[in-house]
Amino acid sequence: MRIRALVLAASGAVALTALAVPAAQAAPAGPAVTFSALKVNSGKNIVVGPTTTVTVTATYTLTKPASLDPNTFASLPVLYRGTTLGDDSDGLAGDDVATCTKSSSTVLKCTAKIQFRPKSSDTDLDLTNADAGTWKLGALAANAAGGVTYQGGLGTTKVLRKATLTTDATPEPVKKGKTITVTGKLSRANWDTNKYAGYATQPVKLQFKKKGATAYTTVKTIKTSSTGTLKTTVTASADGYYRYVFAGTTTTAPVNSAADYIDVQ
Q1: From CA 209, how far away is CA 178, in angstroms rounded?
Q2: Backbone CA torsion sign across 165, 170, 173, 174
Q3: Whether the Cβ atoms of residue 35 and residue 62 lie closer than 8 Å to each other
Q4: Radius of gyration (Cα) for the chain, nearest Å?
Q5: ∠ CA 152-114-50, rounded to 5°
Q6: 257 and which of 42, 165, 210, 234 could share a cystine (Cβ 3.0–4.6 Å)?
């Protein structure tokens, strides 16, 4: 969404507690605040599937003059792209302004929820595939008069498309020295269609863990087909577990498949 929509929401949140500004007055100044220590989702990637809303928590510190009444402004964290954070930026933010508690006369500790929704009916508010990747972190504060303080450059986060991965090793059981065929499929969330779709030409590792072992080893790396499917063969050597592992991309989250056990006789 446009940042201006966030400003209007923040301004409205304090409209009843702040003084109106005469129409002829120049653009009012924003609250004299600064932001620091912004963390979104505890610093972890935000992974969103094809249909379900994902809600994460953001925390930050707001510093203000002792004389500034915290009831005269509202604030919220913003994810944005572009060089700077401002009215004309494209941004992502939560449905509500932050809740802040007084730590001292000049410091507020703030918490906010941010919702990430795959596309539904409103493409200005919801995620589309083009939104996957790295976002910058910032915050804004606004008063009822429309004065806004922006601060960007508070870090980055990744909003990623969720991936799924399967593994099926056959035949079961198998004689030692015979061929095992391992198939699977890599799919990822499509936020435009609200479905999962095969992820083409992606490198995926086939890993094996011998029965009784504590760690997997990589057997080989293969690429998915044009529809996201996987198929390769290995020689049966010992009882154990096969799985596929996808490291992820700049737009798509990493994923490990469930393991499939093979009984070698």
Answers
A1: 18
A2: negative
A3: yes
A4: 25
A5: 115
A6: 165
Look at the pTM and tell me if it is higher than 0.85. Answer: yes
Q: Which two tokens stand for residue 17?
A: 């507690």
Q: What is the 3-state secondary structure (H, E, C) of 23-43?
A: CCCCCCCCCCCEEEEEEEHHH
Please report how many Cα atoms fall inside a 13 Å half-sphere around the Cα of residue 58, on the Cβ side.
35
pLDDT tens digit at each of 265 positions of the chain: 456 555 555 656 664 333 333 444 456 899 999 999 999 999 999 999 999 999 999 999 999 999 999 999 999 999 999 889 986 678 899 999 999 999 999 999 999 999 999 987 665 678 999 999 999 999 999 998 889 999 999 999 999 999 999 999 999 999 999 999 999 999 999 999 999 999 999 999 999 999 999 999 999 999 999 999 999 999 999 999 999 999 999 999 999 999 999 999 9
